[in-house]
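In the design runs reported in the main text, the only information available to the sequence generator was the tokenized backbone. The following block is the verbatim input for one such run; it is reproduced so that readers can re-run the procedure and compare outputs position by position.
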């Protein structure tokens, strides 16, 4: 850790993003043990580096809210929601297990929005979104749910770096057209504390959805 720390700091990094990516397969280690180890890692790292440390976590915890609190208490300076894990695929002809990573689309956004909305109402540290941000409206939704930063990968790979400029310009237009005076005004405006119906984030709402469901919306 010390050698890495020196290398990272000497290279001039202003901050570090720690990607907590592990697939615990040992049935003898329960969730609490795995989480404790993860928090200790963050605490140790924070004790040794001077630059801010953001932690990128996965959504696969029984209590994401508790893990987020633990990370904040362990010294994480920011959280990134969420990691997008490499998932194995079986090649049925070659009889191989392949690690593939598909580019995302906006369908990955709602999981992130839900947890941004919940955690931005609970935590003090900044939250960044990673996963499924492609369009201007995705950026707006992430900000409304409480994101402080928006990370982009797939859309930049698809459209090139100039996508950054066009998204920024169209976000600015969106804000001006609706008379928002700043991004700050938008941020968290639809989070768990601020939105008119917090139960939409908290409950599965299946009964409500089924009552209103039509196979062909718009057809009576
Ligand atoms: C080709 C590729 C390589 C990636 N490599 C890493 C990596 O080394 N470390 C990491 O934390 N995430 C990595 N990711 C995940 C991205 O940081 C990001 O979380 C994910 O792509 C979701 O964002 P997006 O929907 O904007 O693509 C990679 C993604 C892609 C597409």
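Verbatim output:
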């Amino acid at each position: 850790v010390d050698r890495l720390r020196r290398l990272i700091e000497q290279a001039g990094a202003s901050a570090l993003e720690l990607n907590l990516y592990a697939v615990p397969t040992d049935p003898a280690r329960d969730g609490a043990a795995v989480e404790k180890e993860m928090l200790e890692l963050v605490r140790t790292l924070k004790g040794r580096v001077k630059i801010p440390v953001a932690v990128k976590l996965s959504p696969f915890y029984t209590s994401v809210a508790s893990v987020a609190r633990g990370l904040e208490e362990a010294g994480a300076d920011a959280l990134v929601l969420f990691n997008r894990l490499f998932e194995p695929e079986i090649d049925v002809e070659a009889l191989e297990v392949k690690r593939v990573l598909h580019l995302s689309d906006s369908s990955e956004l709602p999981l992130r929005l839900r947890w941004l909305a919940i955690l931005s109402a609970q935590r003090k540290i900044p939250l960044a979104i990673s996963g499924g941000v492609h369009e201007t409206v995705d950026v707006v939704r992430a900000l409304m749910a409480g994101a402080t930063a928006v990370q982009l990968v797939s859309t930049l790979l698809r459209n090139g770096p100039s996508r950054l400029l066009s998204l920024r310009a169209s976000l600015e237009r969106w804000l001006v057209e609706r008379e928002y005076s700043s991004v700050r005004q938008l941020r968290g405006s639809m989070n768990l504390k601020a939105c008119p119906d917090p139960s939409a984030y908290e409950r599965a709402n299946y009964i409500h959805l089924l009552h209103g469901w039509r196979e062909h919306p718009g057809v009576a």
